[in-house]
Amino acid sequence: MRVLGIETSCDETGVAVYDTALPGAAGLRAQAVYSQIALHAEYGGVVPELASRDHVRKLLPLVRRTLAEAGLGVRDLDGVAYTAGPGLVGALLVGAGVARALAWALDVPALGVHHMEGHLLAPLMEDDPPEPPFVALLVSGGHTQLVAVDAIGVYRLLGETLDDAAGEAFDKTAKLMGLPYPGGPQLAALAAEGLPGAFRFSRPMTDRPGLDFSFSGLKTQVLLAWRGSDQAAQTRADIARGFEDAVVETLAIKCGRALDAAGSEVLVVAGGVGANRRLRERLHAMAAARGGRVCFPRPELCTDNGAMIAFAGALRLAAGQHDDAAVRALPRWDMAGLPPLAAASRESLIGNRES
After folding, report:
1. What is the DSSP string of 267-301?
2. Residues in the chain where the model's pLDDT stays below 70
3. Angle at which helices 233-262 and 216-227 pack, to 10 degrees?
């Protein structure tokens, strides 16, 4: 089954084609992402209306380009998947409208995909995919959640952030230190030059039971340290390193507790912060010490992309799930309400990929 995936939940326009007949990573026939970073940089953050307009300009050319790279025409598609939410409602409507119109014109099924399920399932595209049950850490600019994955579509929320998401904390901390937009990657690069231990910030909510997160207080600690410092180049790097170490260690501690709570030794990490090198190293070390396993998508599939939507859509479309003709855009959407994927359908797809 060849599925076109469209992602327009925020400020990346992502398109991909996933083919369930091909094994492992080869199933991703082609993908392309257009980033709006330059468009929003002068505002220091995403402007929703500008994001929607840019999706309108870029989406169809990106669809044509991706199909050409896959060596396919539109009539070779067997289904269309798109991000239905959560996200910016105007941006979501652009992708949903194009996807539904294309599916209607081709007389193929269409499916609205949950953005965070797309992230969660992205590591399953690789050649040695983890099998549920496992624990997932979804960590991005908008979300920080720990989820017990009993089966595809059967999710239990174990813990989430009470205020800023980890990626949001990276971006806001970078901004208060005067780093350019987008701040998260800039702060991580600066932290690589910092001395470990020069600044030590608290590991929020690790001194109490539970699996929830809170990063707003950590951001305040950095602000106070920044204002009280000489703000020299090395000091900037040291503060960035102290902040990154605090976030990474907090995430690692909570992941270990979540694995204990779920009785699992397999951790899946997805979302934009999952590309952070120090987080990957720390979680690999934690998993090795426990005799377990941690799985990440390749770095280019950590941030928003069409590949994860094509794959998640392909899983459900191949199982016979599809939507009616309505165009769906859900700025808020609880992943716990998703329908489960039949085990037989999952096993059949895995068999096809491994044959």
Report:
1. EEEESGGGG-HHHHHHHHHHHHHHT-EEE---GGG
2. 342-355
3. 160
**Residues 189-205: tens digit of each pLDDT:** 999 999 999 999 999 99
Q: How is the chain split into domains, by residue range? A: 2-123+301-354, 132-296
- Binding-site residue numbers are 115, 119, 138-142, 171, 184, 276, 304
**106/225 Cα distance (integer angstroms):** 58
The annotated binding site for Fe cation is made up of 115, 119, 304
pTM above threshold 0.85: yes
Annotated binding-site residues for substrate read 138-142, 171, 184, 276
CATH 3.30.420.40 fits 132-296, yes or no: yes
Contacts of 79 (CB under 8 A, 6+ apart): 1, 2, 3, 4, 103, 108, 109, 110, 111, 313, 314, 317, 322
Least Cα distance to 259 among 149, 143, 131, 118 occurs for: 149
Answer whether 215's CB lies under 8 Å from 165's CB: yes
Domain 2-123+301-354 sits in which CATH superfamily?
A: ATPase, nucleotide binding domain (3.30.420.40)
Do the Cβ atoms of 353 and 153 come closer than 8 Å? no
